[in-house]
Design brief:
Largest sheet: 11 strands, mixed
Number of strands: 11
Shape: globular
Distance between the termini: 67 Å
Number of helices: 13
Structural class: alpha/beta
């Protein structure tokens, strides 16, 4: 591959990541015959992240931008993309570790398929010490495996825009740290949605897939540290509300019948989950009823109908019927 110097920009949002970020960056630097632009965006860290990165900054291997804490990865990702000069952008979380040998083959396939907006790949789930607990995680996603119909080689597939979007509305098969996106496509898709704290990445992958086909590579691209207390395990109701918001965006922008069907079903399931949590865990009957009604209106199901009925019953009457 010719012209790979600064062909790739790696964007790493970082918050209190000083203890783990050096192996993350080293996994990029270990890539043979690649001189990447590495941008770390410090999202208001309170640890000594600057001190940890100082040697790499002095060597010109890392660019560091600092900003006040935004509460989520969307803002630092946007800052990184806005500062990028590479043709492609790799989104790398600050505690994940790449399989560096996979970067150049992925870039080569993107070069060979100019209509593709992004590539993604498989990953292993590990503990905090990088011991693999779940190998080849995406192999378990049967719904996604069914759309791998157009091979590019023995370990890579081209997925049509419609299949990619439709399946993303069923299951999130894209690991963030495996994504290499065409910067021109990112500019067309627009910024990460900074109002989202959990689903800004999935929202972006859907928007990129709406612009064109994507590539999936089944080789393991990175190691995902399953660290307790990560953002992805917090704020259940907020996560489901963001799913509703993403579904609404798809319904607004897509005329494809299959995609709209999946968006409506995803919206309904998310509202149903919100209703269950509000009703059973928080005792918020009024807002639970609103969620159940919204679920039934999006995609009528018996559980949503039952949710509406039980939220209308007086508390004493519901408790009477709910007893085993």
């Amino acid at each position: 591959m010719k012209g790979i110097k600064m062909k790739l920009t790696v964007v790493i949002p970082a918050y209190n990541a000083s203890a783990l970020i050096l192996p993350t960056i080293q996994s990029v630097l270990d890539a043979v015959d690649l001189e990447p632009e590495i941008i770390v965006v410090d999202d208001g860290s309170t640890d000594d992240l600057v001190g940890a990165l100082e040697p790499l900054i002095e060597q010109g291997k890392v660019m560091l931008f600092r900003q006040s804490n935004s509460g989520g990865p969307a803002s630092p990702r946007n800052k990184g993309v806005a500062s990028a000069t590479g043709e492609y952008v790799l989104f790398l979380d600050s505690d994940d570790v790449l399989v560096s040998s996979q970067i150049l083959p992925t870039l080569a396939q993107l070069d060979a398929n100019p209509e593709v907006t992004m590539a993604c790949g498989n990953f292993d789930i590990t503990d905090s010490d990088l011991n693999v607990t779940i190998p080849r995680n995406i192999d378990r996603y049967r719904t996604f495996q069914a759309v791998l119909k157009e091979p590019l080689d023995h370990a890579a597939w081209l997925i049509s825009s419609n299949d990619a979007v439709r399946t993303l509305l069923q299951t999130n098969y894209i690991g963030t740290s495996s994504v290499i996106a065409r910067r021109a496509a990112l500019n067309r898709a627009g910024s990460f949605d900074e109002s989202m704290k959990n689903l800004d990445d999935r929202d972006m992958w859907i928007r990129l897939a709406q612009l064109g086909p994507i590539i999936y590579r089944s080789d393991v691209f990175y190691l995902y540290r399953d660290v307790a207390g990560s953002v992805s395990k917090q704020r259940q109701v907020e996560q489901f509300r963001e799913r509703v918001k993403v579904a609404d965006k798809v319904l607004l922008n897509s005329a494809n019948r299959q995609i709209r069907r999946e968006a409506k079903k995803w919206r309904a399931k998310s509202l149903l989950k919100i209703g269950y949590i509000l009703f059973h865990e928080r005792g918020d009957r009024l807002n639970a009823r609103s969620a159940f009604v919204g679920s039934f209106a999006s995609w009528p199901t018996l559980p949503a109908f039952k949710g509406v009925i039980k939220s209308l019953l007086p508390e004493r009457l519901y408790q009477r019927f709910a007893k085993p």
